[in-house]
Amino acid sequence: MLSRSEHIRELLKLYFIMGSVNCRLSPADTLLQAVNGGITLFQFREKGPGALSGAAAVDLARQLQGICRQRGIPFIVNDDIGLAEMLDADGVHVGQEDEPAAAIRRRLGADKIVGVSAHTLEEAQQAVSDGADYLGVGPVYPTSSKEDARAVQGTQVIEQLRRSGLSIPIVGIGGITADNVTPVIRAGADGISVISAVAQAPEITGAARHLLHKVITSGRT
């Protein structure tokens, strides 16, 4: 049986992040096709111009959570700890401006997945100290999916975290496509998180399948 950290590493292989504003098709159809393509984890992120709010956002979250439950994909909520509590989501992903992982863990319970965005070694070490299950590190490449994205870092921060001895599961984020997956994995990431590379793909299932294949075959140097 896999340890908790080994299980998280498996879940991070192809981490799909999406809300209604990111989709070419309906969110439900987008998620269904992505699941058919082999995504391993899903994060509901309803942000940006035109994003749903209030009851409409909750209804969409419930719909997408239902798809995830039917297909055995853990359902993570971005930032909104209250929504994660309401839905009994499988976990939450937070940024540096949100509650620390330790406080979130007390609210949600020990079995929930808590991910934290980290941009520096110091932020990563603090998140580990606070009990985060995984780190989202980036943006690795330029991205248009997040208006609040920080400066592009390349793979250097992932490499630095691994050189420092941090063994926590890491997922790379930001501008990742099938053409640039390999350096991210070889830098030390356990997987990739994507928005546009799946949600905007002309053929979503095929795009997800190809990305997962690239992650699995990239290996580490």
Automatic annotation (TrEMBL):
GO cellular component, one term: cytoplasm
Sequence positions that bind 4-amino-2-methyl-5-(diphosphooxymethyl)pyrimidine: 43-47, 78, 117, 146
SUPFAM superfamilies assigned to the protein according to its UniProt record, in alphabetical order: Thiamin phosphate synthase
Stored CDD domains: TMP_TenI (cd00564)
Cofactor section: Mg(2+)
Pathway participation: Cofactor biosynthesis; thiamine diphosphate biosynthesis; thiamine phosphate from 4-amino-2-methyl-5-diphosphomethylpyrimidine and 4-methyl-5-(2-phosphoethyl)-thiazole: step 1/1
Magnesium listed as a keyword: yes
Residues binding 2-[(2R,5Z)-2-carboxy-4-methylthiazol-5(2H)-ylidene]ethyl phosphate: 143-145, 175, 195-196
Domain Thiamine phosphate synthase/TenI: 14-198
InterPro entries xref list: Aldolase_TIM, ThiamineP_synth_sf, ThiamineP_synth_TenI, TMP_synthase
Protein EC: 2.5.1.3
Keyword field: Magnesium, Metal-binding, Thiamine biosynthesis, Transferase
Keyword hit for Magnesium: yes
Principal EC category: transferase
NCBIfam families in alphabetical order: thiE
Functional note: Condenses 4-methyl-5-(beta-hydroxyethyl)thiazole monophosphate (THZ-P) and 2-methyl-4-amino-5-hydroxymethyl pyrimidine pyrophosphate (HMP-PP) to form thiamine monophosphate (TMP).
Protein family according to the UniProt entry: Belongs to the thiamine-phosphate synthase family.
Protein name per its UniProtKB record: Thiamine-phosphate synthase
Organism: Paenibacillus typhae
Lineage: Bacteria, Bacillati, Bacillota, Bacilli, Bacillales
